Amino acid sequence: MLAEVARLMRPGGIYMLITYGAPKERLTLLNQVQCCWEVELYIMPTPEYQLKWSNGAAHAMMEKVALTVDRQLPPDYVLKNPESHFIYVCYKSDIVTEDNSMVAGQDDAMTSF
Questions:
Q1: Which domain holds residue 2?
Q2: Using CA atoms, how far apart are residues 91 and 39, in angstroms rounded to an integer?
Q3: How far is CA 78 from the centre of its chain?
Q4: Does the residue 110 lie in any domain?
Q5: Is residue 98 part of a domain?
Q6: What pairs with residue 63 in β-bridges?
Q7: Hey, is 23 helix, strand or coil?
Q8: Per-residue pLDDT for the chain (113 aa), expressed as one digit of tens each?
Q9: Which of 11, 14, 39, 54 is most buried by its number of CB atoms within 10 A?
């Protein structure tokens, strides 16, 4: 399904996946060879978890996770709350080379809204 989403996206397009699916499984799917995009991962704890750690003051806490060069979680990354919302933002490149590597990425994609 994700390969078809990537195929149908225009160059510079953005695909967002918001799920409870943990990064270990989802990043493997999002990093398929057919999907020529860069992936950013954000983690947003559930409201119950936010209230528990913010002394009753509700506010949005979203953490951007720096992925490794091979687009996976760092080996030492510890997930604080496994029931978090995982937000995957996929930026399709403007130009794809023969080896499916990206030439232009998210900086150009952000201006194409």
A1: 1-92
A2: 7
A3: 17
A4: no
A5: no
A6: 43
A7: helix
A8: 898 999 899 999 999 999 998 898 899 999 888 888 999 999 988 777 666 666 666 555 788 999 999 888 898 888 877 788 999 999 998 765 555 555 544 444 444 33
A9: 39
List of E strands, the chain: 14-19, 37-44, 63-65, 85-92
Return the structure tokens found at 52: 């528990």
Residue 100 counted as domain residue: no
Beta-carbon-side half-sphere exposure of residue 92 (alpha carbons within 13 Å): 19
**Contact by Cβ (8 Å): 94, 103:** yes
Task: Report the C-alpha gap between 92 and 14 in whole angstroms.
Answer: 6
What's the structural domain count of the chain? 1
Instruction: Give the pTM.
Output: 0.72
Question: Any residues with CB less than 8 A from the CB of 34 and at least 6 apart, and which?
Answer: 2, 3, 6, 7, 100
